[in-house]
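If you are new to this repository, start here. Below is one unmodified record pulled from the training split, so you can see the exact layout before writing a loader.
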Amino acid sequence: MDHPLARLINGTDRFVVIADSSEGRFPAASYAAYTQAGKPFYCLDLGGLEVSRGRVSGGKVYRSVAELPNDRADLAVIWVKPRSAKRAVDVAHEAGCTRVWFSFQTGHAEAVEHARSLGIEVVEIGRCPVYYLDGDVGAACLWHTRLAKLTGNVGKPPQLEAGGKHRELI
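And here is the target side for that same chain:
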């Protein structure tokens, strides 16, 4: 797929997913999809999980930036509740990330502005990176990705402004 978000996610050597299981925001399906597709990533959980949940139960999860390996790239995918998105941006900044992708329902306007004030580029607000991932993403995300493609959502340009029309599912 020739889309800027496809080029970004597939061209990034590895990235950091920032989640918060204490708020019910652990991306188990995405974790499984990245793993199945063979996409290198690190998952940092602000809620303190040490291992993944879901289909890839027991996979490595980091609890702090200090625990992350040094070979992480400059992209963070934020997967938290909107009220915690600003804190997640701070964690991305601490990790040395210069780009953030706000996944489903995380692009709170204050967090987006905060990212920009820190010099972090916002690359997407609302859609899941799995939509654009090369390789087999497995059944966990397959129906969702197919729905997004059927509705034409995947082909739309990146959404860069908070408060824009939600495009998470359709």
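Two things worth knowing about this chain: The first strand starts at residue 15 and ends at 19. Residues 4-155 form a domain with the Rossmann fold fold (CATH 3.40.50.720).
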